[in-house]
């Protein structure tokens, strides 16, 4: 019996736009590039704003 991974559903256009707005907002607020925020969001299991902000704060404390 082979197990198959559940297929991920592609985000809708509205979800994509909302995520991009969030990324732009967080990048401006925390004074980091959008690419960094996008990379953090991609590596986290949930794209919640608070989780992304925690990771940005952790990264800043390492500097």
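Sequence proposed for the structure above (63 residues):
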């Amino acid at each position: 019996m082979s197990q198959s991974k559940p297929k991920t559903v592609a985000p809708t256009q509205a979800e994509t736009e909302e995520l991009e707005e969030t990324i732009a907002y967080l990048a401006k607020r925390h004074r980091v590039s959008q690419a960094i925020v996008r990379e953090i969001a991609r590596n986290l299991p949930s794209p919640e704003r608070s989780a992304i902000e925690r990771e940005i704060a952790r990264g800043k404390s390492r500097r």
